[in-house]
């Protein structure tokens, strides 16, 4: 009931792709805005509340169902509760791979293998990991890999984005001459290309 009340406190308005956030409980701290939801940290708890936009509420049940199929306490946050327009999951303290590249923090090879292990876990659970990009992969403060957005893990089409990121990592990034700091504008341009269905690498 507590998390339901907190979710109900989140007021959005407008019919834009990302509706305007008009207000929310003082017990919530806004920590992120995605393509389908606002994400909050619950005060004094290591809990994140994801409240979906009015035109994306169907994804709440979809994402909750996917989390229930994934092994808890592994490479994915644990689902604690789900409602008609929200889910409650672990709050993770750390940085995304996007942040690592933007700030020139070296990404170790072992993290790439851990991401692949996480994706294989999802496949063994009968899912099809999709929408795997730099902002959906996090390295926590204790150096664990976590995948943080699973809403599209039931898509039927093949998602090549992670395959391409791996190729760039092993063929370029690990080389001494490859820049380790990449400007935000370039990272966002690459992401925009993939959203259109095109690829940089064939």
TrEMBL record:
InterPro entries: Kinase-like_dom_sf, Meiotic_Drive_Suppr_Kinase, Prot_kinase_dom. PROSITE patterns: PROTEIN_KINASE_DOM. One of its GO terms (molecular function) is ATP binding. Residues 25-202 form the Protein kinase domain. Pfam families: Pkinase. This is Protein kinase domain-containing protein.
């Amino acid at each position: 009931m507590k998390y339901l009340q907190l979710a109900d406190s989140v007021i959005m308005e407008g019919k834009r792709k990302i509706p305007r956030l008009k207000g929310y409980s003082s017990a919530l701290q806004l920590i992120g805005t995605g393509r389908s939801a606002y994400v909050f940290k619950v005060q004094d708890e290591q809990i994140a509340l994801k409240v979906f936009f009015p035109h994306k509420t169907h994804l709440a049940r979809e994402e909750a169902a996917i989390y229930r199929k994934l092994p808890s306490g592994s490479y994915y946050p644990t689902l604690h509760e789900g409602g008609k327009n929200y889910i409650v999951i672990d709050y993770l303290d750390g940085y995304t791979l996007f942040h690592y590249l933007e700030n020139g923090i070296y990404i170790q090879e072992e993290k790439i293998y851990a991401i692949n292990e996480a994706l294989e876990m999802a496949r063994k659970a009968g899912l099809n990991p999709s929408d795997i990009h730099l902002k959906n992969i996090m390295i926590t403060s204790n150096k664990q890999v976590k995948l943080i957005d699973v809403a599209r893990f039931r898509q039927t089409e093949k998602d090549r984005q992670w395959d391409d990121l791996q190729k760039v990592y092993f063929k370029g990034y690990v080389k001494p001459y490859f820049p380790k700091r990449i400007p935000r504008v370039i990272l966002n341009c690459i992401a925009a290309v993939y959203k259109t269905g095109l690829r940089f690498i064939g």
